[in-house]
Amino acid sequence: MMKEFFRKTAVAVICLGVMLGLGAAHSNDLKRWYFERNADPRQPPGASAEIDLAAFCAYYLGDTTQKELYLTFDEGYENGFTAVILDVLLDKGVPAAFFVTKSYIRDNPELIKRMIDEGHVVGNHTVRHKSSPGLTVTELEKELTDTADFFHEQTGQEMPPFFRPPMGEYSAQVLAAAQKAGYSTIFWSFAYKDWLVDAQPGAAAAHKKIMENLHNGEIMLLHAVSSSNAEALGGVIDAAKAQGYEFKSLWCLPNIIND
User: Is 223 noted as a catalytic residue in this protein?
Assistant: First the structure.
């Protein structure tokens, strides 16, 4: 437990460089994460610049000088495709991150065990999947702590210090509270409308959309409830690797410490 405390402290320190301003009041004006695709989709997109993400150890890109990709999945609930996704990742030797709620941990212990045993990051997606700016700082801290504590109770492992705000809704106050709790907030530089389970585009369309927008340092958000993603994933991984991209763990993001 003490080792975990020092690791979380080190993450926060190195992201800020200095710890000035953590105790200051931060705006809780609701922001909705967005990115703007470059005219050349192979170049990293721009994104919301209203808040300096680096000041809060938050990311939407990795190292844009390198052909690296960070594959992440959001897991609000299970729709029967995560096992398939894990099979593909294992077969291809690719790491990913799965952002899970407390109820997902409770309802899917075998999948959580596989994620851990097969080397994936299991990140914090809160207890109730509520809009984070709609919570007080105390309520948000409890959402994060209760999820992490339950993860530890169920698995014997410390929850990796990565947080994804539900629905991409955030504020400076949310980012500061997450950082103070020892988390790096993870946004994304690619996503598409893949979460509507009754309106799936199909594997070919998913493959085309993903491949047309690959870029250096990409943090890719996919929803694991999508049949299209599950069907397309193996081909996407092969095609991206053929173009020289390397899939990396969130632990490899710049200035993240993994001890």
Answer: yes
Helix (H, G, I), strand (E, B) or coil at 105: helix
Domain ranges of the chain: 2-18+52-252
Q: Please, is 136 exposed, middle or buried when counting C-beta atoms within 10 Å of its C-beta (0-12, 13-18, 19+)?
A: exposed
CA-CA distances (angstroms) from residue 236 to 13, 82, 96, 228? 36, 16, 14, 11
User: Hey, how many other C-beta atoms are within 10 angstroms of the C-beta on 28?
Assistant: 19
pTM of the model: 0.90
Choose the catalytic residue: 129, 198, 223, 259.
223
CATH topology of domain 2-18+52-252: TIM Barrel (3.20.20)
Residue of 74, 120, 207, 215 marked active site? 74
Predicted confidence (pLDDT) per residue in 133-143, tens digit: 999 999 999 99
Q: In the chain, which residues have pLDDT < 70?
A: 1-24, 257-259
Task: Please state, in angstroms and rounded to a whole number, the distance separating the CA atoms of residues 201 and 148.
Answer: 34
In angstroms, what CA-CA distances link 47 with 8, 60, 188, 190?
27, 8, 9, 11
163 has which bridge partners?
A: 124, 185
Rounded to a whole number, what is the distance in angstroms from the first to the last CA of the chain? 13
Q: Give dist(CA 36, CA 248) in Å, integer.
A: 23
Distances (CA, A) of 214 to 47, 71, 76: 16, 11, 25
